[in-house]
Amino acid sequence: MDKFRALEYFNRAVETGSLASAGRSLGVSTPAISTSIATLERSLGVQLFIRGPRGLSLTPDGERYYLASRKISMELADIEQHLRAGDSRKRGTLVIGMRHSVAEHCVMPRITRFLIQFPEIDLVTRSVLTTEVEREHIDIAVQVGWPPEGNLIARHLAQTRHVICAAPGYWTTAGVPRHPEELRQHHCLVFRNDEGLLVDRWTFSKNGERCTVDVKTRLTGDNRGWLDVAAVGGAGVMRVTDLTTGPLLSSGRLVPALPEWNSVEAPTIYALYPRRLRQSKIARLFLDFLSEIFAEIEKERVPAYRGAVPRITQPHWFGRAKGRQSGYRD
Question: Of the candidates 282, 178, 171, which has an alpha carbon nearest to the alpha carbon of residue 236?
Answer without folding.
Answer: 171
